[in-house]
Amino acid sequence: MELSDANLQTLTEYLKKTLDPDPAIRRPGYSLTAEKFLESVEGSQNYPLLLLTLLEKSQENVIKVCASVTFKNYIKRNWRIVEDEPNKICESDRIAIKANIVPLMLSSPEQIQKQLSDAISIIGREDFPQKWPDLLTEMVNRFQSGDFHVINGVLRTAHSLFKRYRHEFKSNELWTEIKLVLDAFALPLTNLFKATIELCSTHANDASALKVLFSSLILIAKLFYSLNFQDLPEFFEDNMETWMTNFHSLLTLDNKLLQTDDEEEAGLLELLKSQICDNAALYAQKYDEEFQPYLPRFVTAIWNLLVTTGQEVKYDLLVSNAIQFLASVCERPHYKHLFEDQNTLTSICEKVIVPNMEFRAADEEAFEDNSEEYIRRDLEGSDIDTRRRAACDLVRGLCKFFEGPVTGIFSGYVNSMLQEYAKNPSVNWKHKDAAIYLVTSLASKAQTQKHGITQANELVNLTEFFVNHIQPDLKSATVNEFPVLKADGIKYIMIFRNQVPKEQLLVSIPLLINHLQAESIVVHTYAAHALERLFTMRGTNNATLITAAEMAPFVEVLLTNLFKALTLPGSSENEYIMKAIMRSFSLLQESIIPYIPSVITQLTQKLLAVSKNPSKPHFNHYMFESICLSIRITCKANPEAVGSFEEALFLVFTEILQNDVQEFIPYVFQVMSLLLEMHKNEIPSSYMALFPHLLQPVLWERTGNIPPLVRLLQAYLERGASTIASAAADKIPGLLGVFQKLIASKANDHQGFYLLNSIIEHMPPESVDQYRKQIFILLFQRLQNSKTTKFIKSFLVFINLYCVRYGALALQEIFDSIQPKMFGMVLEKIIIPEIQKVSGQVEKKICAVGITKILTECPPMMDTEYTKLWIPLLQALIGLFELPEDDTIPDEEHFIDIEDTPGYQTAFSQLAFAGKKEHDPVGQMVNNPRIHLAQSLHKLSTACPGRVLSMLSTSLNAEALQYLQGYLQAASVSLL
Amino acid sequence: VRKHGQHMKLFKNKGKDTTTLRRQRVEVSVELRKAKKDEQILKRRNISIHVKEENPSLGQDRADEIIQPSLEEIVEAVNGNDTQLQLLATQATRKILSRHKDPPISQIIELGIIPRMVEFLGCADNAALQFEAAWALTNIASGTSEHTRAVVEGGAIPAFISLLSSPHMHICEQSVWALGNIAGDGPLYRDALIARDVIRPLLALVSPATPVGFLRNITWTLSNLCRNKNPCPPLDAVQKILPVLIILLQHEDKDVISDSCWAVSYLTDGCNDRIQIVVDTGILPRLVELMDSPDLIVMTPALRAVGNVVTGTDQQTQEAIDAGVLTVLPRLLRHTKPVIQKEAAWALSNIAAGPCQQIQQIITCGLLPPLVEVLDKGDFKAQKEAVWVVANFTTGGTVDQVVELVRSGVLKPLLNLLLAKDSKTILIILDTISNLFKAAEKVGETEKLCLLVEELDGLEKIEELQHHENDMVYRAALNIIEKYFSGEENLDLEPQTGEDGLYDFSVKKQDFNF
């Protein structure tokens, strides 16, 4: 493309079209649309220069802006030169862009300046400094222009170029660049800083000039942060006096002209001071040795700042930054003296902490109108940037050295605030809120979601406060009065549940149940959450602290109120309530049975409603858990009841499956597995009708379906193997097809083995005869092509299970029928060297019994070339028995190795209460596998006297022999 | 100071090869900070007048009596034949170069008089001229590399080396000084001196009778002959110098000891073979003793030297441990000087990179409490090194040792440092936390550790780091959260009745799931 007027004209038209609201014109489509056209020409030489020309010279402002955005996106997509890929921008265009872009950016109006500034930093990321050596000089020269529009453009660009110094790892390359920047930039920046401050005082009465100047100061302060981040540069160490003195005086500066009317948005003054707090904090943390002389001044300035700053939201960031600075400094032993004085402490408590703990209008608004956000912040601790949180951190910081005095000072405040409240509760309720918050922050030293407060300040009497000030509020007959105080009280129970004695918790339970009816979302949510937390508490012997018996009087009202709470406005999918329902079921067990008919109806209706548009994953999860619990608890007492659950649930399940509600399908399979396992007799026909559908490949394509579907098929095989063999024999290949699909994947092969094990264990042998060889061939292929530890472990368990089920001879025969001497090869290359890797009680047992059979019930082991493997195999078996258990991961651990099964956790949520009983296929046959080995050897030695003993005495190692003698002794047998 | 690449190695080879955990002192070519005040000076200018006082007969200054000649006059006199004028001009040059502030070294070089000055060094019959020329050249050589080069290219090396055998002690001493400056310029000139056999006559100057001031100069020059890497000094030179250094380390003068320690620290700053040469002399116990010296100028290089030794093999590190380094380190970790804390923590980090027997000695010698103190309230530079100690400890330690570490209270300050303004430190801490979890898994304490991390406000910090700008930091944080903190609810869901076996499904799956 030439740089011609005609081309400029064409480009203008197409740019105009990209702004067209009609997507057919804008987006690539059937005809040559605007965006497609631009895409097609962007590889041409001069294209970027045409855009630059347009954004500079076009008559229409909208085209200028559009060209600048298009240009930036073009740079973003194409500037980087990727190895082995063609260079997408020709060299002469690159040179021309770099030569023109800075002056162009600086002379453009702000809207375009921003786009170009972004483009410069993208280019800079690739080319600066080596391939763009003049950039810095060019920028620095503009500092002298005196035009602050230009200067701010330069500063903004510099900021976007340098801000990466804040998070990149130290490296020679990075530091070389920083050094270069410092050499060219640090002195001019310092001079500019001084000059700008002077201008601020000469223009102290000119509001518009001040705004520009303060924007510069903010950018300068940000650049200071970036340039000082990696290490303290020599230049800034030498010029610390200049910078810190000026920063300090800016912190104390105020100018009415810079104050904004806006209550929400932080003004320039706040932004600048906030950045200065960050800069001081950076120096205090990293360069303490050099910064020490300045630090006390900053401490004083910052707390004065806090004392004089108002409650408006716009000051929040500044205030929380400033408090955090004090909090981090007051913990350091060598600055302890700055805070030690009683007057100082009192003034910090009184003027900094207490005011920032007050419940503000904005909090009240959130409490009422945005309760979800309020709960998230208040309950889940995502309040890191809030003033309350900062004040809390400061309290904890001060308590490190001054717990006694601070507690003393605050006790006075708490008392006076409570007195204020008592005088006129309806007006002064916020005083009590602050008092509770203060007590909470003072008392809590360590906290977890699971246990609430775990370490408390011993100087605060939590129970007394609870009885005198919390319970009365909750006992009040009107649950909807002073909702904030109600929420505070409930939260108090929740977090101090481990500090308050049990009898007080028991007194609170009916109060909490009562507050499930409160209209305020926060209040009834907190009540549900508090109950849920109390129900998980553990007493002695790891039993729940609160027992089902103690809850007996409240069962009905608890269940009623919980389900009613789900009908309150705003809480129809409240996860806290649903979780409390699940937890209540789990605690109350059989005492919920009378209510199950009504409960299951309500749960089913809920399920039906949310399946239209599942949006709350936690809510849904707990709902399914609750369903599982209902089934379990009921059917444990009355197995026949399973039918009524099926009746209630299958209609909804069918709808979920038919509508392919992907989020719910894995849950449905899990619930169905649970139901199916409850059946004691033959598999019901309703399940059999579904069986073919479960083998549909489309279901198996989704990772999240695999574990629950395998589980469900296993339940089918356990309960209905003979029915499948007789009534659905034609589906067996499909079933094995699933196995084949799973075995092909490294992530899912273990699931394939689960399925295969169930098939081998339960299907009548004749129904799978014709497929057996094929199965082994598949396994061997996988073994050959991609052998992984996980696969080997599963494989070993499977062949031993096969051996147990079909006999050792059958195993040897089928191996050797696939390939001569195959059996020996598998023994030698896989079983003997790898058997130690098998983990899990049941799995080890299966292997032990299988190997015992090979040793003692497989004639070719005694009289062919396989005989030489007999001792090594026995030795391996003894090793399996005796080598230290390496599977020390405790049962209750749930984490899944993410690297091995990518996306596993997100796709599949396992229902704990749909859990499956552990199945031991050799359980009845063999109780103690060591004794079983001894007995089997005894039998073998009886059949061929002398052989076994001579093999043992010539080649079994001494240690193994000793173990073996132990087994023989325990079994009271001896070898002949 | 460490190389970036070595850090990467640590992460990639974690647990595979403990020798890679040791972090040698590698000079980074780029430094943003001011030159360190605690380092030994490379080159020194003779600006003091103590020479004159100690040698009243020679080199006397009579500035008040002599009118300072102009530069032109100097050139003329130096190039002329009048020995008296030569002396005066040379002396004038020396005085210009000896003035306190901003000596005009480049200007003097531009006069082109260096070759003449070098000639004067050879005027054995005119000791005063020799001395003044030697002094002037010393000060020129004390400047930048370019300045030193001018002196060397003027032919000064052989001239100074032969002056080492001068009958006049003050000329000898001035030559030692000049040679020190030349050697301090870098490996190139250092080796040029060694090739000219500087060592033999230099060492010959060391005797019980050598005045202490002179001995200080010799020691300093010797240290410069041991200094610098790429390449390090020739092996045979090192072997010649070492026995003398060992003797000097026993001297009572702390400056002599200090520079001897610096010399040893340079010799140990390199590959393990070089460390071995020093270890073989049996000097480690003395160095460890000096680490505990009340004088900072002795303690600093002694610590440096021992710190270098423990970057070596497990056996070399063991020798340092046997020499008692672990009994001194607690005091140094609590030293008021941040730089000492930092160096001590660095040394400890390298010991912690060793086999678990050495880690056990760290525990036994009571290093954990001071380590926790450094992490908690040390200077940031020291904290960073302490983080490395913990990282290495958790990588190579046994489960019991790691449990002991956690018991000593390391977790709280470690988690607090997740707020550090340094991406690398944060990443190492996250890695360490992963190590702790791996250990916890082995003893079935995962849940307990989860709670502990949460209690100590670590969880929210790790959660915050999921928003970190640095990609590796963000991913490491995410990994920990996903692995250990996202499924916390399931731990709660243990059925109370128990007989239903609620965890069976998952347990079975886990056994297979690798």
UniProtKB/TrEMBL annotation, chain A:
Please list the residue ranges annotated as the Importin N-terminal domain. 34-107
Its predominant location is: cytoplasm
SUPFAM superfamilies the UniProt entry points to: ARM repeat
- Specify the signal sequence span: none
- Family of this protein: Belongs to the XPO2/CSE1 family.
> Where would you find this protein in the cell?
Cytoplasm; Nucleus
Q: Which GO cellular component terms are attached? A: cytosol; nuclear envelope
Q: Which domain of life is it from?
A: Eukaryota
Q: What keywords is this UniProt entry annotated with?
A: Cytoplasm, Nucleus, Protein transport, Transport
A biological-process GO annotation:
protein export from nucleus
| GO molecular function term, any single one | nuclear export signal receptor activity
Q: Does the keyword Nucleus apply?
A: yes
Parts of the chain that traverse the membrane: none
Q: What is this protein called?
A: Exportin-2
Automatic annotation (TrEMBL), chain B:
Provide the GO biological process annotations.
protein import into nucleus
Superkingdom to which the source organism belongs? Eukaryota
Provide this UniProt record's keywords sorted from A to Z: Protein transport, Repeat, Transport
Q: Which Gene3D superfamilies match?
A: Importin-alpha, importin-beta-binding domain (1.20.5.690), Leucine-rich Repeat Variant (1.25.10.10)
Q: Where are the ARM repeats?
A: 112-155, 155-183
Q: Which GO terms label this protein's molecular function in UniProt?
A: nuclear import signal receptor activity
Limits of the IBB domain: 1-54
Q: Which family does it belong to?
A: Belongs to the importin alpha family.
PANTHER family assigned to the protein according to its UniProt record, in alphabetical order: IMPORTIN ALPHA (PTHR23316)
* Protein name per its UniProtKB record: IMA5 protein
Tell me what organism the protein belongs to. Answer: Pomatostomus ruficeps
